[in-house]
Amino acid sequence: MRLKKAGALMLKMTEIILLLFIWLTGSCVFSFADAAAWRMSRGMDFIKDRSRCDSCGHVLAFWETIPVVGWILCRGKCRCCGRPVSLRHMAAELIGGGAALLCADRMGISLESVWMLTFLGILMTAALVDLDTMEIPEGIHCVILVLTALSFLSRYIGLGNPEILAADSFELSLLSRAAGALCVSVPMLLLTAAVPGAFGGGDIKLSAVCGLFLGWKGILMSMIFAVLSAGAWGGILLAGRKAGRKDHFAFAPFLCAGVFVSVFWGEEIWNWYRTILMI
């Protein structure tokens, strides 16, 4: 009996350690995504340059950059100037940890999870840069294209999840991705041609590469959520007189939030919607 209890305890401890490792991995990915966005927004090299205090420029030590832990140890303040550290950094790390756990839950510990977590991390960078500068760097679109090619090819050379492959042939997947690249980006382009400034060029390109990665169903659901949430935010700004009808705000954060919702809860939402239509 004691051996059985000890075995169950060891199994539980192993599960907890695995979950912590997955969470930490996601936090590290999104911590880098946040740091990359901070550097790119300021015209810095996102790989070679070091993370610094937003206020005094103090170069952060390694232990200060440890996801969440560094923020807690510094008590949310720069140890050099004492000014508060933006909660945005810790929020990105917490979201990354949650995204990693959701990827593992939805797709298992697989290569698909790795591709998806990387994709979401890149989107986080795009959203934060757009929030800071109202622009999305061309390099982000290129990186997503490369990631899409790698993830697509890996599924059909013996590295993919068998359950996913069983429900998704090569031809159908290719067609879905091609449709995804066009079904949202083309209407956005046409709307922008008719109403100049409706969407930025970076937003249109981002929707195209996201559609290529997610397929038509995923990008459609992402866009619906993005438009609804962006419309609600615009309404709040207008009601509070913080923006006028001709003012613009970053759209990428809403598109990226829509992708998050679509990736993790899209199937449930899609099935619920189909049920409503059948009624």
UniProtKB/TrEMBL annotation:
Residues 25-104 form the Prepilin peptidase A24 N-terminal domain. The chain crosses the membrane at residues 114-131, 138-158, 178-199, 211-236, 248-266. The keyword Transmembrane applies. Pfam families: A24_N_bact, Peptidase_A24. GO terms for biological process: signal peptide processing. GO terms for molecular function: aspartic-type endopeptidase activity. Keywords: Cell membrane, Membrane, Transmembrane, Transmembrane helix. One of its GO terms (cellular component) is plasma membrane. It is a multi-pass membrane protein. It is found in: Cell membrane. Residues 118-234 form the Prepilin type IV endopeptidase peptidase domain. The keyword rRNA-binding does not apply. Belongs to the peptidase A24 family. This is Prepilin peptidase. It comes from Candidatus Caccovicinus merdipullorum. The lineage of its organism: Bacteria, Bacillati, Bacillota, Clostridia, Eubacteriales.
